[in-house]
Each structure stands twice: as structure tokens, then as C-alpha cells.
Amino acid sequence: MVNNMRYDDYLQEQLKNPDVKKEWDDLQPEMDVIRAMIDARIKNNLTQKELAARTGIDQADISKLENGTRNPSLKLLKRLAHGMGMQLKIEFVPMQPLKK
After folding, report:
1. What local confidence, expressed as pLDDT, does residue 55 receive?
2. How far apart, in whole angstroms, are the C-alpha atoms of residue 3 and residue 28?
3. What's the burial of 96, exposed, middle or buried (CB within 10 Å: 0-12/13-18/19+)?
4. Where are the alpha helices (DSSP H) in 1-100?
5. Coil, strand or helix: which one is 99?
6. Which residues belong to any copy of the HTH cro/C1-type domain (predicted)?
7. Is residue 2's pLDDT more than 90?
8. Do the domain assignments include residue 33?
9. 52 within some domain
10. 16-63: pLDDT as tens digits
11. How far apart are CA 49 and CA 41, in angstroms?
């Protein structure tokens, strides 16, 4: 009964399915980038329009990035970071062992 479940509970239930879990895990890096972009923009009290003015990137393109309908290049991510007075940092972290 999905209607009575909280989203987090529903998600956890769905992630028990190995196929769903794999798809979720495969999308996680993109979701992390999107969340980091949005969080940084909000932390700097910027609208998409203001960030567009600072970076020279169309507001529509910033919206597409934040909605996940456009994949950013590293060059574009660096422009966004610079427009928010930040630097881009990318890191590799060890993979978590599979839970049994």
C-alpha cells in the first residue's frame, strides 16, 4: 500500500530489489552532482537567473542541469563554481563493500 507509506520507507522497500538497487546506484553520482550544484546555489542565496548573469550560462541551461536533463562538462562545472565564489573539487572515494 504505497499511499500509506512514507517515501523513504517505499524507497527502502524498492531498493531490496537487486535490479532497482543497481539502477539507483548507477544514477547516484549524477544525483550527487545535481544536489551539490543546487545546495551551493542556495547557500549563496542565488537564483538561477542571478547565477546565469554571473557565469554567462543561460538560465534555461542551469535549470536543465538542476533537473538532470543535461549533463555538465567539467568546464561548465568550473564556471558554475567560479560564479558562486567557489572552486570545484572532485574526489574518488573507496567503494563500500556489498551488504549481504
Report:
1. 97
2. 26
3. exposed
4. 7-14, 18-43, 48-55, 59-67, 74-83
5. coil
6. 37-93
7. no
8. yes
9. yes
10. 999 998 998 888 889 999 999 999 999 999 999 999 999 999 999 999
11. 11
- Residue showing cell 535490479: 19
> Is residue 13 a part of any domain in this protein?
no
56 conformational bin, left if phi > 0, alpha if psi -120 to 50, beta if neither: left
Count the domains in the chain: 1
Give the model's confidence band at 1: pLDDT under 50 very low, under 70 low, under 90 confident, else very high. Answer: very low
pLDDT tens-digit profile of 56-69?
999 999 999 999 99
Domain that holds residue 62: 25-87
The CATH number that applies at residue 71 is 1.10.260.40
In this structure, the chain runs to a length of 100
Whether the CB-CB separation of 34 and 66 falls below 8 Å is answered with yes
Query: Could you tell me if residue 20 is inside a domain?
Result: no
In the predicted model, is pLDDT for residue 100 greater than 90? Answer: no
